[in-house]
Amino acid sequence: MCPGPRDDPVSLSSPELLEVVEPPTQSHTMVEPGEQLPQEVLALIFRHLSLRDRAAVAGVCRAWAAAATSSAVWHDTNISCDSEWEGILPPYLSVCLDHIHNLQLEFEPSRKPSRRAATELLIALADRAPGLRGLSLECHGDKPLFDAGRDILDAVHALCGTASELRHLDLRRLPFTLDDTLVLQVACGCPELRSLFLDNHTLVDSVGPGSVLKLLAACPRLRTLGLHLASLSHAVLDALAEPDRAPFALLALRCASPEDARASPLPDQAWAALHCRHPGLTVELELEPALPAESVMRVLQPAVPVATLRLNLSGDTIGPLRFAACHYATTLRALEVRASASSELDTALEELAARCAGLREIHCFCVVRTSVLDAFRAHCPRLRSYTLKIKREPHPWRPTFVR
After folding, report:
1. Which of 5-14, 192-201, 277-286, 324-333 has the lowest mean pLDDT?
2. Is 29 left (phi over 0), alpha (psi -120 to 50) or beta?
3. Which residues lie below 8 Å from residue 158, measured CB to CB, with a gap of 6+?
4. β-strands 168-173, 134-139: how paired?
5. Are 133 and 190 in contact (CB under 8 A)?
6. Strands 361-364, 334-337: parallel, antiparallel or unpaired by DSSP?
7. Handedness of CA 265, 266, 267, 269 (dihedral sign)
8. Number of Cβ within a 10 Å radius of residue 395
9. Which of 43, 36, 75 is nearest to 58 (CA)?
10. Which ranges constitute the DSSP H helices of 226-342?
């Protein structure tokens, strides 16, 4: 995954960023501030500043400008396009694009200035992207109705065509339908890819298993992949299990779209062969309310090495919990449940706690009885955090961390 930033999101288009900061005159200072500290030390300090403050310190003197625009400051960068956009990329930021290796870019699709800023930045990166190693896109707020996101997706498409050294691409938080064209562009332009997340929250999945097969062939070092269930196939599992394949670590599957509900169940023997080939493989499985009840048990298969299970079902949750307790007892490490409170649910959770001793996290977003909390505390010695409320509390519910 794209490594996280070291500071809070900063605005590309804050008015302050566009102001020119005049350097101090000789009458105001006798020694340039930059002469007092080595550039390496200044860079360590400046990397924790906001974008606005980096622009300010770059105008103090030549030494500070050199430090503020160095690779050490910009290697991991988080940019938020949350203010008015002036129509052009700020010159200060443009100078630093070559130094960005890992970028987390946040924007609001419903706000035209924010969206235009994100698009222009991606296009600018596409013109000078050889050094980019990681890209994560994140949308905030609601997207406009019937918005296909062509401007953003076209910019991502262009960037992937030039970012030949890209290792990590995370599109999970884009609210737009991803398709085969984008996946094939990634396969063609990003042969060094190590992780790719396409399991975003849309109700339409337009990535077919055929394009995933071409991606795997073109990116032999890929070891982490996030998909909608409909993008997976028997042939894809076989390709992942090939003897010359690099060790595969994580397969994240989201089941929410009509295509996911209609997907044919994958044979247990294919999952068993994949797990045998990659003993360290973990699977994250997310089941959403749009998944019909009759499809849930087709998705849950005994041989899948499920480490993280998220159940957010509109129908029966008890059956999937009992299935997980029976078949994922040795692999399950994190469980999230969103359901209505009931004594049957409490009983199923207690049974799961007794079987899944390796559980690290349990988050249940409904009120449970005290014995459920006691069961997880007693049977799960490796528990690190839990959300188990025995009485109603104001939202959002915060987890409890175990020391």
Report:
1. 5-14
2. beta
3. 122, 123, 126
4. parallel
5. no
6. parallel
7. negative
8. 7
9. 43
10. 234-240, 258-262, 268-277, 293-299, 318-327
Whether the model clears a pTM of 0.90, i.e. scores above it, the answer is no
Torsion angle in degrees (nearest 10) through CA of 169, 175, 181, 185? -20
- Residue 204 Cα to chain centre, angstroms: 19
* Stretch (H or E) spanning 54: helix 51-58
Q: Which residues is 253 bridged to in the sheet?
A: 227, 285
Q: What span, in angstroms and rounded, lies between the C-alpha atoms of 365 and 208?
A: 33
**pLDDT at site 84:** 42
Planar angle of CA 37, 39, 43, nearest 5 degrees: 105
| Cα 301 → chain centroid | 25
Task: State the pLDDT at residue 300.
Answer: 92
Q: Using CB atoms within 10 A of its CB, is residue 196 exposed (0-12), middle (13-18) or buried (19+)?
A: buried
| Mean pLDDT of the 293-316 span | 91
Helix, strand, coil in percent for the chain, rounding step 5: 40, 15, 45
Phi and psi torsions of 196, nearest 5°: -145, 125
d(CA 82, CA 195): 27
**pLDDT digit string (tens) for 48-102?**
877 777 777 877 888 888 888 777 788 888 888 865 444 445 666 777 777 888 9
The per-residue pLDDT of the chain, averaged, comes to 86
**pLDDT score recorded for residue 247:** 95
Q: Which residues pair with 364 in a beta bridge?
A: 337
Residue 16: band (very low, low, confident or very high) from pLDDT cuts 50, 70, 90: very low
Please tell me the distance from the alpha carbon of residue 287 to that of residue 172, in angstroms, as a whole number.
15
